[in-house]
Amino acid sequence: MVDEADLALVVGLGNPGPQYAGNRHNVGFLVVDELAARLGGKFKAHKGGADVVEGRLGGRRAVLAKPRTFMNLSGGPVAGTARFYKIPLPALVVVHDELDLPYGTVRLKLGGGENGHNGLRSITKSLGGKDYYRVRFGVGRPPGRMDPADYVLKDFSGVERKELAFQVDRCADAVEALLGKGLEAAQNEFH
């Protein structure tokens, strides 16, 4: 299970504002929104720099958070929220988009590199370590010569949107499995 600590922090990465809501880069927000809906909770502004909702997921207490900064500056709000709730690195789960995985693929891991993901880079720098859990939602590679930064800031395609609710729901299930059953069991179920 995610650390021995009773309380876990689940952070969804994205960019604030309605103009980014349907972007591939905002899939982390979509997943924590789904988890909040399962809790019946509404996000509220928190002094740590993120919007949060508290409840129980996977049989344990959890705080869901969405940083109020742009993706590249996520580290400050994540670190501030983690400090407020006294969350150690191994009790942190970050849900984010992943270019190196086909659309809809979900992969879970502990630690590792940032693969060029500026949100993860900011979090690692602000927390001073990489040993937190990542739930990676595949968005696929950009077509042709499109810049990856432009690609992740575009909305999901029409074909992708048809399956998006299902894929987000499945990724939320993976987060709950990680919290309740641990990394290996969750990987066996979702990989």
TrEMBL record:
It catalyses: an N-acyl-L-alpha-aminoacyl-tRNA + H2O = an N-acyl-L-amino acid + a tRNA + H(+). GO terms for biological process: protein quality control for misfolded or incompletely synthesized proteins; rescue of stalled ribosome. GO terms for molecular function: peptidyl-tRNA hydrolase activity; tRNA binding. Its EC number is 3.1.1.29. The record marks 97 as: Stabilizes the basic form of H active site to accept a proton. GO terms for cellular component: cytoplasm. InterPro entries: Pept_tRNA_hydro, Pept_tRNA_hydro_CS, Pept_tRNA_hydro_sf. The active site is at residue 25. TRNA binds at residues 20, 70, 72, 118. Its main location: cytoplasm. The keyword DNA damage does not apply. It is found in: Cytoplasm. The record marks 15 as: Discriminates between blocked and unblocked aminoacyl-tRNA. Keywords: Cytoplasm, Hydrolase, RNA-binding, tRNA-binding. It comes from the Bacteria. HAMAP family: Pept_tRNA_hydro_bact. Belongs to the PTH family. Catalyzes the release of premature peptidyl moieties from peptidyl-tRNA molecules trapped in stalled 50S ribosomal subunits, and thus maintains levels of free tRNAs and 50S ribosomes. This is Peptidyl-tRNA hydrolase. It comes from Solihabitans fulvus.
